[in-house]
Amino acid sequence: MGILDRVNRAIGSKNKRNEFPTTNKEYTNGKIKDKKYLPKKKGSRTTKLLTTIGIIVACFCVFRLVVFLTQDNAIFDHSKINIKVPSYTTKSLEDAEYYDYDFEDIKPEIISKFDQGVQHYLISEFGDDVLTPKDNERYERELSMLLDSTVESYDLADFRGSPKGTEHRDHILVCIPLRDAEDVMPLMFKHLMNLTYPHELIDLAFLVSDCSEGDHTLHALLEYSKQLQNGTLSQVFAEMDYVKKQSKSKSASADDMHIKYMSPEYIAEVERAFKPPFHANYDKPFRSVQIFQKDFGQVIGQGFSDRHAVKVQGIRRKLMGRARNWLTANAIKPYHSWVYWRDADVELCPGSIIEDLMAKDYDIMVPNVWRPLPEFLDSEQPYDLNSWIESQEAIKLAHTLDEDDVIVEGYAEYPTWRVHLAYLRNAEGDPKEVVDLDGVGGVSILAKAKLFRSGVQFPAFTFENHAETEAFGKMAKKMGFRVGGLPHYTVWHIYEPSDDDLKQIATKEREARRE
Ligand SMILES: Nc1nc2c(ncn2[C@@H]2O[C@H](COP(=O)(O)OP(=O)(O)OP(=O)(O)O)[C@@H](O)[C@H]2O)c(=O)[nH]1
Ligand SMILES: *[C@@H]1O[C@H](CO)[C@@H](O)[C@H](O)[C@H]1NC(C)=O
Ligand SMILES: *[C@@H]1O[C@H](CO)[C@@H](O)[C@H](O)[C@H]1NC(C)=O
Ligand SMILES: [Mg+2]
């Protein structure tokens, strides 16, 4: 049966049920009854009739009100209001003017990319299609079904975010920025499926930007998303893993060379984490998937050494800030109570992370982020140093800097002596213990949606000598929100060998061969 037939059938049976299908089969089947988010009911005759009556009554009331006001008070008498419209000519600001400071060395062609070529994809119901604005009729229909964008009233007090989100049926927007991420895509999707927070309460929003030529992030993302929404993605991965294993037994790939130098316990843990059984709703489709493609002119390479040079941090981080803000602004809806930011390059993470971060009832909450290392480099390392507690030394240091300078945490150039969340970790510590933070890192941030509604954002400019996620934490704190981290709750970032590490591994391989 084609999608059109299915949609038609769903619409037909809906008239009987007085319910409209949303993106999930579960909604259609009527298994999930969501108290807070009921998709707009369309086209039912009674609804139409009621709406029409409502509009007539409303028009009449407005008319009476206007008559009342003009007669008795006359404050709305337009002839008495004398507004002088100043004559001025609009000056059009080029993007280059706004971002003069950071982009001095970047070519105008790159900057002019900013407002071109935004693409928006919707994965259709059951994932059997990808819709773009070109398929206008169905695109419009499914988009309005998804966004429910015509006049609706929401009491935002119902969407403040509850520490018991699952019980309260809180909707959450999961945002994932992506660049040259083709290789980590299966990893990322496995983590999404592993989330135990009810999938039907999760809207996924991806932003793909500035990928290199020959990279297929967008294409892969579309294909996997279709399977995800059809409930068939884990079968696809099982198939892929089987084929990979068959070919690997013949020749060990150079990419995996480092694995035999990693700690066997960690490798065993990774193997266990990706093997079934998974949680019961692993294959359940999400409420929706939206994919945005928009370039922001990121020119700094995405290689490990490229993106970690201290000089490029300020520019890179500000561009990421713009990308994050753009994504939240385009994806957030009134019914979202939470926004969860997640990087694609995470290797191990408890499936219950959303519930666990929520439970603390902070406005922003982050876990600890470490990464594994080869055993010859001590096996593991605190990784995300962007989550920290402000220090007197750093405040003094900030006073010596230019207003526009960005302090990058974890570099010798900036001795801040801050307490880093990463270093507070004790492997045996209580995963529920919380510390208050000032700056936060971006690998995994849970924030209440009301923060974004109140104007907290990821500064794409220097805010208190910080940018992006660290400035996000600082700004939230300054606006009176609570920012915290869990020092003993650990998420493991993937290990990407640096050029130096690869040299060491190559040397060891050569030695081993000589023996
Ligand atoms: N849309 C977009 N996504 C990006 C860009 N740069 C990185 N990303 C994505 O953002 C996430 C984090 O990127 P990383 O390169 O690991 O950057 P990071 O986490 O700040 O830094 P690391 O400490 O190097 O891991 C990943 O999901 C990337 O695919 C960008 O310019 N645009
Ligand atoms: C969706 O899943 C069904 C099985 O559940 C399968 O028959 C169908 O081909 C899948 N559709 C797509 C687009 O992969
Ligand atoms: C999936 O979630 C389970 C349960 O929290 C966890 O043990 C496992 O490590 C997770 N998988 C990955 C790949 O992180
Ligand atoms: Mg990373």
Automatic annotation (TrEMBL):
Pfam families: Anp1
InterPro entries: Mannan_Polymerase_Subunit (IPR052086), Nucleotide-diphossugar_trans (IPR029044)
Molecular function (Gene Ontology), one example: alpha-1,6-mannosyltransferase activity
Keyword terms: Membrane, Transmembrane, Transmembrane helix
Family, similarity comment: Belongs to the ANP1/MMN9/VAN1 family.
PANTHER family: MANNAN POLYMERASE I COMPLEX VAN1 SUBUNIT, MANNAN POLYMERASE II
GO biological process: cell wall mannoprotein biosynthetic process; protein N-linked glycosylation
Cellular component annotations (GO), alphabetically ordered: mannan polymerase complex
Membrane-crossing segments per the record: 49-69
Name of the molecule in the record: Mannan polymerase I complex van1 subunit
